Amino acid sequence: MEQTPKASAMPLRIALILLPTPQFDINSAEPSTLANYQTLQPELIPLLKAAAPADMINITISDDSDTNSFESQLNAATEAINNGYMVKLATATHALLMLPALKAAQMRIHPHAQLAAMQQVSQVDVNAQPFQPGSHALNQALDQALNQAKRNLSDVSLNESFEALNSEQQFTAVYSLIQRLASRTHVRNAVELGPKQAKSHYWFSEFHQNRVAAINFINGPQTTSYVLTQGSGLLAPKSMLNSQRLMFVLQGNNQQQIAASITLLKQQLDSVQVTDADELYLEQQQVLLGIMHDNLVGAAKLIQSDNNSTYHAVIQASSVSDAKQELAALNQALPSLFAEQADSSLTNQGLIQYKTPAGSYLTLTPLGSSSSNGHSQAGLAFVYPGVGTVYADMLNELHQYFPALYAKLEREGDLKSMLQAEHIYHLDAKHAANMSLGDLAIAGVGSSYLLTQLLTDEFNVKPNFALGYSMGEASMWASLGVWQNPHALISKTQTDPLFTSAISGKLTAVRQAWQLDDADAEIQWNSFVVRSDAAPIEALLEDYPHAYLAIIQGDTCVIAGCETQCKALLAALGKRGIAANRVTAMHTQPAMQEHQNVMDFYLQPLKAELPREIGFISAADLNAKQTVSEQALSSQVVAQSIADTFCQTLDFTALVHHAQHQGAKLFVEIGADRQNCTLIDKIAKQDGNSAHQPCSTVPMNAKGSQDITSVIKAIGQLISHQVPLSLQPFIDGLKREQASCQLKLANDTVAASNEHHILREEV
């Protein structure tokens, strides 16, 4: 017979907290250990201070006998918790603290997850076929667990099943699930992935819906199902810097001082003992982390002081030996850099910079501070890319480094829709490339919005100017605190005819402009990137009335329209074009049919407090002597700006020059990939040593690079350009990394002591 628990069983409501070490002892924590817990998991401190020794029960997970199965041990823990105790479940490698959810709430402790249900079903027929997903026992156990948790199967966003695991393996699987809930990480461990596909990404949920997970263990005729829900606690952010990802800041007012800083850092790194395999033991990791921490603390104080050094060099590397090589290469480059600066024959001197693939960077023409090198005005500009820069699995790992930011964005709006997660994180990597224009627009704005908050909230970077490439103007207004509710545009973009059929899809605006009726054939529309100046193309447009010069961008242009006429124009031009194979009539004359509709679409209420310190620069009026922020910002002004840009040829070259005339010098691309940085670099190269110089670009993201590496490299460049910012995210991460390392050392000491004790007993 099957053992069927009562269907009316109440939810368990047990708070679950992951412990950073199995040696966690609520009764005898030393001050140094307490400090480490305070750094890694401050939610444990109330327990350490308030709990009496008698309140705590320790249960070790083992497979010594059938009576000590994981299920029986968890049953014992549950019974103890019902009687008012706290329980620590542990193996040699993992530990979990369990207590009543009500008690956790009273103590203002934020658990990582909650255990809502546990149900076990035994199937009599032990000679039945081997377990198959969907078997009767599994279904019944899960149904009963969901019933106990007061949940439906549709609430479950992750349902895992394992067969024939021992108790320690079952505990590890549950521990891993709690980790994923607490870090909001979805792991793709059940499917085959391509070599470039992400192994995990943010665990998205429906707006205002908690994550619910089920885990099932099948051992012979017995199935046990558990239902867990997300807790209010988040795992501590992963440290951006560690013993495999190094960053140091060197200061100096001249070549000699920077060289002296290089020598000092090299001496410090020489004290770190490296193995023959270029690896570090825990003790040496501690030494290296300490050097990095002290270096950045000193740099942060100098950045915030009035006695800021003239130059900041940033060293980045993946190991101690690589860092030494980066130092040696910079030291070798210093004479030529300062010689270039001292060359009085250079008029309108442009950017003087040194950079390496590893991310090391030094500029002798810092552009980010109002006091930089005699410049009268800070020139930091945020640049927002247009449609089509998003790509599969973008930003897949940032949530682990900035969990509080993601939690904030999730509270504010539908993050899943904002990033078009079902497209971007689809298991088919080609899916993202085939998104509709509306979905591309949403994901583009969403990625820019996220990266803007990352830069402004986490690192306290404030731009002096902002501009956008094409629909990047909409990203600009949405991301920088102008619109009251930018999330309201998500559903509109997916359904409004403006994006679904007017300038994309059936191209109804184009059909109207070309005076086509329903009987006429579908328009074969395409756009082509061609290496050419605008003038030769403009001279041919009259002969090809259904081809348009859509975009001017550095040494290339984009023509769009009837595919046949575009190809004919290219032939007449004697140029080869690269087809974009995307249907959009933005920046062409037919788009003017939709000008009023574009205005109506983007006519959004503005916030009561607007960012008056930012100069917004629009491609709609390249003759403006003022930035938009110097005018009266209004819903009408913003909507008019977007509509004008949307419906006319985009001259991105002129827009960049216009921004430079307004005072922009340092262009930081805020969005997926780095296409705008590439274009601006080409424009700057074309300009040469002209009045538009100096100019520098900084990408926040780059397709094919690790997300966090791109962020660290970007911050490194901003430091060298003396942009006012906070290094606290780096410093706090290093503190956590040091605390974790110290706990590992303590664990190793305890393990070694136990092993020695066992050996003595054996002798």
How would you characterize the overall build of this protein?
The chain is an alpha/beta fold and 763 residues long. 40% of the residues lie in helices and 17% in strands. It contains 25 helices and 24 strands. The strands form five sheets. An eight-stranded mixed sheet has the order 2-3-4-1-5-10-9-6. Strands 21-16-15-23-24 form a five-stranded parallel sheet, with helices on both faces. Strands 20-17-19-18-22 form a five-stranded mixed sheet. A hairpin with a 5-residue loop joins strand 13 and strand 14. Helix 7 packs antiparallel against helix 9 (320-342), helix 13 crosses helix 14 (472-479) and helix 20 packs across helix 21. It is globular and about 90 Å long. It starts with 13 loop residues before the first strand and ends with a helix. Mean pLDDT is 89; it is low at 1-7, 125-129, 372-376 and 756-763.
Approximate strand percentage: 15-25%
Helix proportion range: 40-55%
Strand order of the main beta sheet, please?
A: 2-3-4-1-5-10-9-6
Query: What best-fitting shape do the alpha-carbon axes yield?
Result: globular
* SS-based class: alpha/beta
Output mean pLDDT.
89
The N- to C-terminal Cα distance equals 51 Å
State the low-pLDDT regions, or none: 1-7, 125-129, 372-376, 756-763
Number of helices: 25
